[in-house]
Amino acid sequence: MVLKPQDVYVTLKIVASQADRAPYSQLAAELVMSPSEVHASVRRAEGSHLLHGPQRKNRPNFRSLASSPRKTLVTAPRRAANLR
Asked: What does R_g of the chain's alpha carbons equal in angstroms?
């Protein structure tokens, strides 16, 4: 599943709230998005394991959030080195 930039935006909003996830309508109003766009973003974030699913109230998956940048930083120089 491919994430869109808005998915990261929605995920960061949920992380910043430090509480149970707000209703889609409230998130949509705060982020100036439609509720359906927020819902789709949350589903894509769940699919990529940035958010836990409904069984955990869509809370952030901090383990995945913390490990994703490291993977990118570690693999990017290797790819660049192989291209030379």
From this structure: 15
Domain boundaries, the chain: 5-83
| Four-residue CA torsion sign, 70, 74, 77, 78 | negative
Scanning the chain, the segments in alpha helix (DSSP H) are 5-17, 24-31, 35-47, 62-83
| Closest to 51 (Cα-Cα) out of 7, 83, 84 | 7
5-83: which CATH architecture?
Answer: Orthogonal Bundle (1.10)
Q: Using one digit for the tens of pLDDT, what is the confidence trace for 60-71?
A: 666 666 655 444
Q: State the Cα–Cα distance between residues 10 and 49, nearest whole angstrom.
A: 14
Which pTM does this prediction carry?
Answer: 0.67
